[in-house]
Amino acid sequence: MIFNVTLIFSRHEEGGLCTSDALLQLIESTNPEVIFEELSHSTYQESYVQQTLNNLESVAIKKYLTIKNVIHLPVDTYDLPKDYYKNLDYLHNKMAYKAGEHSFQLRSFLDNMISLGNQHAFRIFNSDHIDVIIEKMDILKERILIFLNDEDLNRIALLEKEVIEKREDVILDNVYKYSKENNYTSGLMFIGSGHRKSILKKIAERWKTEDIKINWQFYSDLEWKLK
C-alpha cells in the first residue's frame, strides 16, 4: 500500500499573507485523514490541552478541527538536551548583536526572510529560493563564530546542528512508524522551511530503504487547487 502525504514547509508565526486562514485553505485542499505536526509531546499538550501555545500551524489546525475531526499527532519527539533552548537563545543573541557588521548582516537576513514570508507566504517557504537564503545565512553564521572565537558558542552551535539532524530523523521515523501501523490514504505534514533541503534529501534516501512506501506530495502539487 502506498500512503499519500503532502509535505508543507511553513514558519511558526503569522504575518502579512502568511496567516492561519491561508494555511487552513491548504489543509482543506488536501483533505487529510491524519496530520503530522512539528510539535513535541509537551508542546502538543500546551497547544491542544492547556491551550497556552498558539503558533501558525496549531491555530490553522484548530480551525480545521471545527470543520472536520481528524487525527493529528506530534512527531517532533526527540528528547532535547538539558537547557537546550536556553543555550540557543544565548548563542543567537551573541550572533545577532555582538559581532559588529556581521551581526547587522545577520539581522538583515532575518528581516528579509520575514518580509518575504509576509509577501509571498507559503510559495516562498516551499521554493528553492528559501534554500539559497538559508545557505547564505549559514555561511554568515560560520563567519560570526570565527569572529567571536568563543569555545562555548562553538560547542552550542555544533550541538544545534546535531540536534536538528536527530530531530529530523525522529520526525520521519514517527511518520513511517504510524504508516506501518495504520491505514490511511491522505496525510499532511508541516515542518519549518529551515528543514527543507535536508528533509527532502532524507525523504529521497528513505524511498530506497523503507519497506513502507510513502508517496510524498508538495506545495507545487496543490497550487492548481488554490487558484
Would you write up a description of this structure?
- The chain is built from ten helices and five strands, in the order E-H-E-H-H-E-H-H-H-H-H-E-H-E-H.
- The chain has 227 residues and is α/β, with parallel strands linked by helices.
- It folds into two domains: 137 residues, Cobalt-precorrin-4 Transmethylase, domain 1; 79 residues, no CATH class.
- Helix 5 packs antiparallel against helix 7 and helix 8 crosses helix 9.
- It is globular, with a radius of gyration of 18 Å.
- The two termini are 31 Å apart.
In terms of per-residue confidence, which ranges show pLDDT below 50 for 5 or more consecutive residues? none
SS class: alpha/beta
Q: What is the alpha-carbon Rg in Å?
A: 18 Å
Summarize the biggest pleated sheet.
5 strands, parallel
CATH class of the largest domain: Alpha Beta
Helical fraction equals: 55-70%
- Examine the coordinates and then state which fold CATH places here, giving the name of the CATH topology of the largest domain: Cobalt-precorrin-4 Transmethylase, domain 1
Strand content: 5-15%
Oligomeric organization of the protein chains? single chain
Gross geometry: globular
List keywords for this structure.
227 residues, alpha/beta, single chain, 2 domains
In short:
The chain contains 10 helices and 5 strands. By secondary structure, the chain is an alpha/beta fold. The model has no long low-confidence stretch (mean pLDDT 95).
